[in-house]
Design a protein that fits this description.
With 78 residues, this protein is mostly helical. It is built from four helices and no strands. Helix content is 59%, strand content 0%. It starts with a helix and ends in a 21-residue tail after the last helix.
Length: 78
């Protein structure tokens, strides 16, 4: 998360970097992904931000309860 943020500037980015650095556990980092997505979207656009955040989702595997993983959206057959 920090490596994604370090190439950006601004007060909001610096504040988010502090929150990531001082997160107490994996669950806290998991919830900071939304803030990360917002910060990256502002700088790089939403599609690129989603691509970057998707890359870090695998880092949470095994560290969170199964119910807290990324949602898989299934399309309903017509």
């Amino acid at each position: 998360m920090l490596s994604l943020l370090q190439v950006h500037t601004g007060q909001n980015v610096q504040r988010l970097m502090q929150r990531v650095r001082f997160a107490e556990d994996v669950e806290a980092l998991w919830y900071l992904r939304q803030d990360l997505l917002a910060a990256l979207s502002e700088a790089d656009g939403e599609l690129e931000a989603r691509r970057q955040v998707k890359q870090i989702n695998c880092m949470f595997k095994g560290g969170l309860p199964n119910t807290m993983g990324p949602r898989v959206h299934q399309r309903f057959p017509v």
